[in-house]
User: What shape does this take?
Amino acid sequence: MCRFLAYSGDAIFLEDLVCKPRHSLVRQSLQASEAKTTTNGDGFGIGWYGERDSPGVYREVMPAWSDENLLALCANVRSHLFMAHVRAATGGGVSRLNCHPFHLGRYLFIHNGQVGGFGKVRRRLEAQLPDDLYELRRGATDSELLFLLLMARVQAGTAMADAVRGMLHDTRDAMLALGIDMPLRFSAALADGEQLWAVRWASDGHPPTLYLKPQRGGWAIASEPLGDDAEAWTAIAGGRLVHVRDQAITQTALD
Assistant: This one.
C-alpha cells in the first residue's frame, strides 16, 4: 500500500509536512507504520499550485528518502494547496509514468488502494473512457485509470460527490460482472487549485487508512499521522468524501 498526504490552507513550505515531521512522508517511504508494506520505495511524486494556471508536478522512480532534489525543492516551494505520494507498487511496474500524482488540466490526483483482479477487469474499465481521455492514458496502473474515469464524469458536468460515487459503484459492478470477489479499495485525494477532496471507501468495508488534522490556517490529510501528535489526527470514516475549500470543511456519505 502507498502513503500520501494533502494540504489546503495558508501558503506553507512543502517541507513543513513532506520532510520535517518526525513521521514525515519521506520517513514513511522507508518505514510506514499503518501499511501492509513497510517500505514505499517504488517512486514518489509531489504536486503543488502556485501562480500559474497549471500545477507544478515532480515525479521520480527512486525512493523518496534518497532524493536530495526532493528535499531542496520542498525547502524552497511554498503553496496553499499541495499533495505528495510515496509508492509501493502493486501492479504496473516501476516507472515515472506510474508515479503519482496524476494530473489533467487543473486537476491533481493521488491514490492508495487497489482494484481487485485488475488484469481481468482492466479492458472493460478502459472501454468506459471517452476517446480523448483514453488517448491521455500513459501508465499501466489502476490508479491512473480510476482518475480518468472520474474525470470523464467531472467533464460531463457531474458534481464531484456524485462523480466519485458513480465511478466507484460502476467499477465495483464491472468487477462483480466478471466474477471478481477481491475488494475495490480506494483512499484518494483530488484537487483543482481551489478545492481539495479526499475519499475513504472500500467495497468490503476495509478501506485504507486516512486521517484529517486542522492546521494553523488550513487542513492536512494523510494516510498516517505525521508526528508525535497522533491524538490530533481524526480518522476519516469509511464511505466518506471530505471537501475542503477556503478552510471550510464538509463531509458527504458515498454509500
Remarks:
- The chain has one domain: 3-253.
